[in-house]
Design goal:
Elements lengths: L5 H5 L2 H8 L39 H4 L2 E5 L2 E4 H14 L7 H27 L6 H14 L5 H10 L4 H21 L8 H10 L1 H4 L4 E10 L6 H19 L4 H8 L10 E6 L5 H8 L10 E3 L2 E10 L4 H34 L2 E3 L2
Helix pairs in contact: 4-5, 5-8, 6-8, 9-14
Amino acid sequence: MTRRPLVRVVAVLAIGAAVQACSIPSWVPLIGKDKTPPGVATDAPPARLAVNTERLPDSQAVMDRVICVVNNDAITLYELDEAEAHYLHETKQSSMTEDARRALRTRLLDTIIENRIQLQQAEREKITVEDSEVQDQLNDIMKKINAQNVAQFEDALKQQGLTIDSIKRRIREQILVQRLTRRKVTLRISVTEQEIDAYFAANREKLETGLTFEARHILFAVPPNAGDESWEAARRKAEQVAAQLTEGQDFATLARTYSDDPSGKDGGSLGTLKRGELTPDIEQTILRLKPGESSPPTRSPMGYHLFHLDSQETLSGDALTQARSQIRDILYREKYEARLREWIADIKQRAIIDIRL
């Protein structure tokens, strides 16, 4: 295939991005995905992939130089440079230090190697892609770049040194990897209801962040710098009012009578609150109550309080269903990523990789 200067390749990266986005979840690793995806075995030792990043003369021979052989499949310097150009364009980076560039090219080469191994595995397992499937995605790309017809699309590609055949090849490879990954990873993981229950119990507080509650309080204030006698008097008063609550007295009525806080005139109402608006110790005291319950005397820097929980929004009904669905997605993704890393590390370990940089 005729090689073109990289400066022209960069200009058509919008087309490359459109290819990558066709009908595939953003977190599923695919060929040409330059940002580190869940599928990249980042834990693999990178030492053997040391890359010489000195700029080389722009000649056909140099661009076609073989820099790595994966089993019997060659990877050229052109492919690595193209991957770097894609990455810099997508991340909008115009410059970087030599050390950073060296690290980037090492990672990109590792990703290319892993993609090549997956394609080889797909071929061994006789996974195929129909021409009609490739054409469907090619049509989607044409729409995304506003090409009105094939001739206009070909002209846009030609101006950038690309061809429809090269785009079709990229689409076909992505579908192959997607199908191989489904067979080796996706179909081998599942999330049980018991796992969802355990996650929900361990992370309930986080899941309930943003839910609201309505509460009241009665404050028995202690003046700043007051002595022990004032604190003791406030405590005894709080206990006396708490006893009245135990006997069935109305909290709002007692708040209007005894509270030293301005909210007393409103029956001690603190209004509708979101979790995190009160200090953690006070919020925990309130949320330990059931709706309609009142707390025992609770000390704070202001004095003693009695708290009452009027109502509390909980994860139930549609909210609970949605939360469990989100948990399932989280657990599935964790399992997917772990299984994918394990699988890629395994097939990579069994491959013969010859770095020639």
